[in-house]
Write a structure and sequence with these properties.
Layout (H helix, E strand, L loop, with lengths): L6 H11 L2 H10 L5 E5 L6 H10 L5 E4 L12 H15 L4 E4 L8 E2 L5 E2 L3 H5 L9 E4 L2 E5 L6 H17 L5 E4 L20 H10 L3 E4 L14 E4 L2 E5 L10 E5 L4 E6 L2 E6 L9 E2 L18
Parallel strand pairs: 1-2, 2-3, 7-8, 8-9, 9-11
Antiparallel strand pairs: 1-12, 4-5, 6-7, 10-11, 12-13, 13-14, 14-15
Helix pairs in contact: 1-2, 3-4
This protein binds zinc ion.
The site of zinc ion (ZN) has 7 residues, from loops.
Length: 300
C-alpha cells in the first residue's frame, strides 16, 4: 500500500499555480527520482536477507554494501556463499540490485597475492551489478568498489573512480564502498576512528554525491558516531548492524532529497539539501515518501 505523497504530483500542482517562467525552473531543477535502500553487514543473518527480499520491490535500487558472509560463523564460507547466492537470485528480478564485497567476503587470492571476493563473478552472472561495475539507474551513475586488500586492487579502485569521473557529466554520482572514510562519525567505533584514508582522499578529489558504506557496525549507535556524515558536498552513509530479523537500513529519496535511518534504537532523518547539523532529527513516523509500511520496525 503506497502512502507516500508523490513529489512529481506535488511539483505538477505547484507548477500549475506559477507563472510560465517559474514553471520552467521547477521542471529543470527536479532531480530524477531514485529510491535507494542501503543495507550492509548482514553477516549471514538469513532473516535479515528475508527482510531485504520482502522490502526490495519498494525501491528502485537495493544496495548490499558488503560483509554478506560471517567468517566467524559455524558454516564454511563456501556454504554461506551458496546460500547467499540463492537469496540474490530471488532478489534480482525484484529491483536493481547492487552488491559490493567486504572484508568477510574474500575467498581467494588473485595473481598478485591479494585477497579478493572471486564469488562476485557469480553474483554478476545473476544479472546483479557487483565489484568493479558501474551502472546507470534513473539518470544516476553508481560505481561499485571492491574491498581492497593490497596496492594492486587499491590502484584498480582508483582507476575505476577516475574513469567514472569522466562519465559523470552532471549526473548524480553514487559510490558503494564497504568501509567508511577515516576521521568520520561513520567510522567511529566508540574508541577510535577505523575508516579508510584512501576513500577520504578520493572523496576529496571527486566529490561524489553519495557514498554508501557499512563495515563499522557500531558507528551509528555510539556517542560521537553516526550513520550520516557530510564531507564537502558528499554525503556519506553507514547503515550499521543490529541483531534480530530486521537489518539496520537507510532509505534515500534523491528527488525529495532526504535520507532516513532505521534501527532498534530509533530512526533519524537527514535533509540532503541542508547543511548537516547534529543531532540529526529524530523520526517518530516514517517519511511520507516511504511506500513500504514494513520499513522501520520501531516506527510501525
Ligand atoms: Zn561487517
Amino acid at each position: 500500500m503506497r502512502v507516500r505523497a508523490s513529489p512529481t504530483l506535488t511539483s505538477a500542482i505547484l507548477a500549475r499555480r506559477r507563472p510560465a517562467r517559474d514553471r520552467l525552473r521547477v521542471t529543470r531543477t527536479a532531480e530524477p527520482r531514485l529510491k535507494i535502500l542501503l543495507v550492509s553487514d548482514l553477516h549471514y543473518a538469513l532473516k535479515q536477507f528475508d527482510w531485504v527480499v520482502a522490502n526490495a520491490p519498494s525501491f528502485d535500487v537495493v544496495v548490499l554494501a558488503g560483509d554478506h558472509v560471517d567468517i566467524a560463523g559455524q558454516l564454511s564460507g563456501s556454504v554461506q556463499v551458496t546460500v547467499i547466492l540463492k537469496y540474490l537470485r530471488r532478489l534480482a528480478p525484484l529491483t536493481r540490485v547492487v552488491v559490493s564485497s567486504g572484508n568477510h567476503d574474500l575467498d581467494t587470492r588473485d595473481g598478485a597475492g591479494e585477497k579478493v571476493a572471486a564469488w562476485m563473478n557469480r553474483v554478476r552472472q545473476l544479472g546483479i551489478a557487483a565489484d568493479g561495475d558501474t551502472i546507470e539507474a534513473n539518470g544516476a551513475l553508481i560505481t561499485i568498489c571492491p574491498w581492497w586488500d593490497g596496492p594492486v586492487v587499491r590502484e584498480a579502485v582508483s582507476a575505476l573512480l577516475q574513469r567514472d569521473a569522466a562519465k559523470r557529466a552532471g549526473k548524480q554520482w553514487i559510490w558503494v564502498y564497504h568501509a567508511p572514510p577515516a576521521d568520520s562519525p561513520t567510522s567511529w567505533t566508540g574508541r577510535e576512528h577505523f575508516g579508510d584514508a584512501d576513500l577520504s582522499a578520493w572523496i576529496e578529489t571527486h566529490a561524489p554525491d553519495l557514498v554508501l558504506t557499512g563495515h563499522i557496525h557500531e558507528a551509528p549507535f555510539k556517542r560521537d558516531g553516526s550513520w550520516a556524515d557530510r564531507i564537502g558536498a558528499s554525503w556519506v552513509f553507514n547503515s550499521g548492524r543490529q541483531i534480530g530479523p530486521t537489518p539496520t537500513h537507510i532509505a534515500i529519496d534523491t528527488q525529495v532529497r532526504e535520507a532516513a535511518w532505521f534501527s532498534l534504537a530509533g530512526a533519524e532523518l537527514a535533509r540532503l539539501d541542508l547543511p548537516l547539523t547534529r543531532p540529526l532529527q529524530s523520526l517518530e513516523i516514517a517519511p511520507a515518501w516511504l511506500s513500504s509500511p514494513a520499513l522501520g520496525p520501531s516506527l510501525a
